[in-house]
Amino acid sequence: xxxxxxHERNLCRPDGRAxxxxxxxxxxxxxxxVPGAESLCETKIEKHxxxxxxxxxxxxxxxxxxxxxxxxxDLARRYENYDIIYFPHFPLPIDLPMxxxxxxPAAYPKIxxxxxxxxxxxxxxxxxxxxxxNHVLFRIFRDEYMTGYLQxxxxxxxxxxxxxxxxxxxxxxxxxxGNLTWRFTDTPAGDLHIDVFQNGLPLVESDNxxxxxxxxxxxxxxxxxxxxxxxxxxxxxxxxxxxxATLPRDRNVIAHILSKGNLLRDAPAHAVAYPQLSAIAVxxxxxxxxxxxxxxxxxxEYQCEQRDMLDPxxxxxxxxxxxxxxxxxxxx
Length: 332
Ligand SMILES: [Fe+2]
Hints:
Elements: H1 22-33, H2 38-41, E1 44-46, E2 55-57, H3 64-71, H4 74-80, E3 84-87, H5 96-99, E4 111-112, E5 122-125, E6 128-131, H6 136-141, H7 144-168, E7 175-183, H8 205-208, E8 210-218, E9 224-231, H9 232-238, E10 246-247, H10 251-260, E11 270-274, E12 279-281, E13 287-293, E14 297-305, H11 316-326, E15 330-331
Parallel strand pairs: 2-3, 10-15
Antiparallel strand pairs: 1-11, 3-12, 4-7, 5-6, 7-14, 8-12, 8-14, 9-11, 9-13
Bound molecules: fe (ii) ion.
């Protein structure tokens, strides 16, 4: 019998057999038995009373297909409403013990498909094959076997994430992978922000018509710690007196103004700590967020066309003029 597609694979069956993700299974069993081990496995979400509660916490499922069967279009609908979708288990075929043993130089805080992480390791020169010693992974690990094994992991996991997102958001027919990045280094605490691209310059129209889907998957033994706060329309309403009276109609430029002015430094926020192989999907260009700490993780950055959204009028950039008008801003 052929094996099921990635999004239908249960990697951690209760009978313990066919357990691809051994560490995840072991950790779960340990959490059930060993007092004190819970902190590694439990999700902690501390909600701040002054920030609207926009968490959409899913029940745990063992396959992506089961998440899709349970929640259907609610996943895309809630995401388009700027809710933070929490997956208590993100079932990936991944060798966590091996990956969690890697330490790489801080000079490579994240490497992704845009850096050629999934490019071929072998190059053909006439009739012979040569290992590509210029490959980004070899430049880090300096070992052909290690590089080969890691890239096999990365490629299979990336393919599974791609398959999963198409099952979780099936109406997003034009779904494009902008980048899949892997981190193996400590992430220093950052500022509360909404994402800024290209140094805050106005984006070209074709980029502004894209709906961005971001998923952050923790693959470290320690929980990844975040804070999340107001959405962009809530920020425009709440900080009306502290922002310029005239703002551009460009989401990216407004995000840059918020960041430069450090306007969100005192903003109240929810705190979340999410354990290994759990994930958060959040529209980071419209929901304020902040990394407090964490180490190994995978970030999936996908884009879909506005026309494929369940409600195309909810495209963030397209809503900016309405928000500005509603909250009394002049537009530049
Ligand atoms: Fe960000």
